[in-house]
Design a protein that fits this description.
two-stranded antiparallel ribbon, 10 strands, mainly beta, eight-stranded antiparallel β-sheet
């Protein structure tokens, strides 16, 4: 199917999300485990005449095996649909707010003392997503079916990365230096502590798209 693009030469997988027409009821699930593991999920589907609603949400997290490596995941999906004699239309939303702690490599001498120890911190990634979609299908004739879709997607990522630096601070010196001779950092601690740097990067993505398809 050319709708999936040239990267789908070997085949493509499409996922049909649940709706109130395909799933009705209420379900609640909760789980707990070691290292602060916790997880809760809920889904609810309802149909009333030509209208149907469905929603699903999940929250999970854990403290991680290493220090500062905990993860927190929250996500939601909701759909409102209408089904008539010759067509069906749906409006749905997907939301997510996730934060992950990352533990980089640590010296063996440090992990021998404490297996959960980290060498540099903070190292975190935070992702947020909002996606809105409206789609519909219409049976124009017994042999022709029309499909339309339009969506908006907003994705943001914030990354914090703590690292060591190449600056060496000697006791009694006014500035810290590197092997290249850079001296733009004052020696605030008189060489008593090692310096670190925190790098911050952001990604912001906005997407608008649509599809129109006729099938015979």
């Amino acid at each position: 199917n050319p709708l999936f693009g040239l990267n789908a030469i070997g085949g493509a997988v499409t996922l049909d999300m649940k709706t109130g027409f395909t799933w009705q009821g209420f379900e609640l699930d909760g789980r707990f485990g070691s290292r602060g593991r916790r997880q809760a999920s809920m889904q609810h589907g309802l149909i009333s005449g030509p209208f149907a609603t469905y929603m699903a949400m999940e929250a999970l997290g854990d403290d991680g095996y290493r220090q500062f490596s905990g993860a927190h995941v929250k996500r939601f999906y909701g759909d409102v649909g209408y089904r008539g004699e010759s067509g069906e239309i749906h409006a749905n939303v997907t939301l997510a707010n996730n934060k992950f702690g990352v533990s980089g490599p640590a010296p063996v001498d440090l992990t021998n003392l404490d297996e959960s120890a980290v060498f540099t911190t903070p190292q975190t990634i935070k992702n947020t997503l909002s996606m809105f979609d409206i789609n519909g299908v219409f049976q124009a004739t017994p042999t022709w079916k029309l499909f339309g879709d339009i969506h908006y997607r907003a994705f943001d990522q914030a990354r914090v990365d703590g690292n060591t630096t190449e600056f060496e601070c000697e006791e009694g010196e006014e500035f810290c230096e590197t092997d290249a001779g850079d001296t733009n950092i004052p020696n605030f601690f008189n060489g008593q502590v090692a310096l670190g740097a925190v790098d911050r990067t952001w990604t912001r993505s906005r997407t608008v798209g649509g599809t129109v398809q006729a099938t015979n």
